[in-house]
Design a protein that fits this description.
single chain, 495 residues, alpha/beta, Rossmann fold, N-(1-d-carboxylethyl)-l-norvaline Dehydrogenase, domain 2, 2 domains, 5-stranded parallel β-sheet, 3-stranded mixed β-sheet, 46% helix, globular, EC 1.1.1.-, NAD(P)-bd_dom_sf, 6PGD_dom2
């Protein structure tokens, strides 16, 4: 393209004809949702569903107000406001790519110590849903017990300073206190993170934190607010120079474009105390079977990401599609999924676990999606405890094989050593990276040192079938290499 068009309300009409754009008058949109954590996934997923409703002339009073609670969110706010909170979504498919500009977000709140602007907006009676994408590790849950972590310094601060909280949850509680006291009433808390029973987890965090400073308020929230469970699914890589250049190829100057695969799914429990958009008219599913959908997705897709990302890092495979084209990693993925994960997954309408494994193989293997191994391996301390270790416990409970899952953990321990097999350094990639490296280096000679991280493994260190398998795999990885371990696992059971 010879000319780049700076994205804004005023330039929408000048975009190339092939690019879809808002057909609704954005000046007539009014806010109904505050969304905390305006990352790529939110914009490619929840914001897109709402945009599609608006394209049909519906939900015009449900526009999104973006928000954040961390200092780095201020940079994103500036970028969004400079382009009227518009975003270019670029769908990547092996057969080609397409672009669409979405406009369902209309504002981005200032980032402020004490979160006063965020609290004030959530008190607004027009706001009926407060949604979050704050990552699965952002809910202040003890990974070993799944209980609320009230001892965390953030929670201690917010309990002691409920009017000027640091966290999103503290801000939600203060807004609800004001809504209760002024008679405005409750709103729905909608988690859009990859957590099993994410609504239940959000309720646990909000109510438990409120109880630390105001038990009566905690009771009111628990009785009046709703926190529907939901399952969210779309592969959305991080945005960097490559993604910005892809927007440029469509003629758009967008500081925050988003690339995504040609697949989306959103299954939501229909439990909204103050109303909701008709997201089902844009392709979402309201269902009482959310648990089955989310179990299938979290166990096969999210655990599947951890199955391939750690050996990918160790073997210097930079992308997820590259991992799926690596014969040993792909064979390992397939065997673990079919033998050790699918047995713990129930079918959902229109999809068996085996068919879902096939679907995920195709999605992970999409070469047009440049999803980095590093991004997928990030925050393993949350993702392994959330996605992989529950499967280990399930397998042990029914005496199913957990050999491949033990190998997943051994590969994570090897990755956390901090170097790849080619000698290159793995940069810190976890909030607790220093602790993980320390444990991984001790485990090179004494594998059980890794499992003594009780906050991660709990009683699994004492479960001999798992502990012995982990010990054996980690020793093999260090003696013969990652690929040798993958091949040994895949050869097991063959003639």
């Amino acid at each position: 393209m010879d000319e780049l068009i700076k994205l804004s309300n005023e330039t929408l009409s000048r975009l190339p004809a092939a690019i879809l754009r808002p057909q609704y008058d954005r000046k007539k949109l009014t806010a109904g949702i505050v969304h905390i954590g305006v990352g790529n996934f939110h914009r490619a997923h929840q914001a897109w569903y709402l945009h599609r409703l608006m394209q049909a002339g519906a939900a015009l009073d449900w526009a999104i107000v973006g928000a954040g609670v961390r200092p780095y969110d201020a940079v994103m706010r500036e970028k969004f406001l400079a382009q009227d909170c518009l975003t270019t979504l670029i769908e990547l498919d092996p057969s080609g790519s397409s672009a669409e500009v979405i406009g369902s977000m209309i504002d981005y709140l200032p980032i402020s110590e004490g979160n006063a602007p965020l609290i004030a907006r959530m008190v607004d009676p027009a706001i009926r849903i407060v949604a979050l994408t704050v990552t699965e590790g952002g809910y202040y849950v003890d990974p070993a017990t799944s209980a609320f972590d009230g001892a965390h310094p953030d929670m201690q601060h917010d309990a002691a300073n409920p009017r000027t909280p640091h966290t999103a949850f503290g801000a939600v509680i203060e807004a609800l206190r004001q809504r209760r006291d002024t008679g405005i009433g409750p709103f729905t808390g909608l988690s859009c993170d990859n957590l099993l029973a994410n609504g239940r987890v959000m309720r646990q965090t909000v109510v438990s934190l409120a109880r630390m400073s105001d038990p009566a308020l905690a009771d009111w929230i628990d009785a009046n607010c709703t926190f529907p469970n939901s399952m969210v699914d779309c592969i959305v890589p991080a945005t960097g120079e490559k993604e910005i250049a892809q927007a440029h190829r469509f003629g758009i100057d967008d500081a925050v474009p988003v690339t995504h695969e040609n697949f989306r799914q959103w299954v939501i429990e229909d439990d909204f105390c103050a109303g909701r958009p008709d997201w089902d008219q844009a392709g979402a599913t309201f269902s009482s079977q959310v648990h089955d959908y989310e179990t299938m997705k979290l166990r096969i897709l999210n655990a599947g990401h951890q199955i391939i990302a750690n050996p990918g890092e160790i073997l210097s495979v930079p992308t997820i599609s590259g991992c799926m084209s690596h014969p040993s990693i792909a064979a390992y993925f397939r065997k673990v999924q079919r033998e050790e994960i699918a047995p713990h997954v129930a079918p959902v309408p229109g999809m068996t676990p085996e068919a879902y494994v096939d679907l995920i193989e195709r999605r992970f293997g999409n070469p047009a999606i440049v999803d980095t191994t590093r991004r997928v391996a990030f925050d393993g301390s949350s993702r392994h405890t959330g996605f992989v270790l529950p499967l280990v416990r399930k397998g042990l409970a029914i005496e199913n094989s957990i050999e491949g899952l033990a190998l997943v953990e051994a590969l994570w321990a090897r990755m956390c050593y901090g170097t790849r097999e080619d000698g290159s350094v793995i940069e810190p990639n976890d909030p607790f990276w220093e602790d993980l490296v320390r444990a991984a280096r001790a485990a090179r000679e004494h594998p059980q040192a890794w499992l003594t991280q009780h906050h991660l493994y709990g009683d699994l260190a004492a479960q001999l079938p798992f502990a012995q398998a982990f010990d054996r795999w980690l020793r093999l990885i260090w003696s013969d290499g990652c690929e040798a371990a993958l091949k040994a696992y895949c050869a097991d059971g063959k003639d």
